[in-house]
Amino acid sequence: MAKAAEYRLPTTRPHVMGILNVTPDSFSDGGRFNAADAALAHARTMIADGADILDIGGESTRPGSEPVALDEEWARLDPVLDDVIDLGVPVSIDTYKAEIARRACAAGAVIVNDVWGLQKDPAMAGVVADAGVHVVMMHNRLDVDADLDILSDIDRFFETSMRLADDAGIAKDRQILDPGFGFGKTLDQNFRILNRFDTLKKHGLPLLAGASRKRMVGAIVDGTAGDRLHGSLAAHLIALFKGAVVVRTHDVGPHADSVRMLEATLLERVPV
């Protein structure tokens, strides 16, 4: 089990983060893995397929989803979290609730993946700092505004998130940024972010890309969420080529293979 005080996200190579939803209503795989045995089996499969990190969540954040009470979110996570952590791969907890993050980090999670970038729950930054874990600070919006300069909005949001992290004492080498594909954005804005993904490197932090099976992919390749592998893979490879360090995906095996090819090409060596 990776300990928070010891774990550092290596930024010299790309990482595949496998999605483990223990929710009944995820947009892509809702209900498939919310039973503890099924979730644990899926976690093992993702590890075998090459996952570097497992991201486990007990509340769907898809557009239009209903908020879940803290006790309900924990009731979904508690039966499986310890067993997933014991598998030995670094575990990320996907939550914007500080108390859920605190419990998960106490159990051994080494990353908090906050879809509101420390700006939803005022206690979150302190919890992350106290636990000594990494944090993914994702850009989000309540409303979609087609006239918005989305890249400038992301910059402003990230500056606030980074200030909150710094003020709480979260070390710079524990901070990760995610532009939040599909969260409060139009289709055009999502593709503008992908096209200009390299500009996000100016913030000086590792970048995560999470376009897996999202509607921006479906708008181009058509098909249901489960049919969007190839489009998701293309989006993530573009993001990796433009500077992403982590890609968050439902489809670990194909991503792990593609990342190895990209790594061998960009680094001009065969990874060992």
UniProtKB/TrEMBL annotation:
GO BP annotations, alphabetical order: folic acid biosynthetic process; tetrahydrofolate biosynthetic process
Residue ranges occupied by any Pterin-binding domain in the UniProt entry: 14-260
Keyword Magnesium: yes
Cofactor names: Mg(2+)
Pathway given in the UniProt record: Cofactor biosynthesis; tetrahydrofolate biosynthesis; 7,8-dihydrofolate from 2-amino-4-hydroxy-6-hydroxymethyl-7,8-dihydropteridine diphosphate and 4-aminobenzoate: step 1/2
EC code: 2.5.1.15
Keyword Transcription regulation: no
Similarity comment: family membership: Belongs to the DHPS family.
Record-given protein name: Dihydropteroate synthase
Organism: Roseibium aggregatum
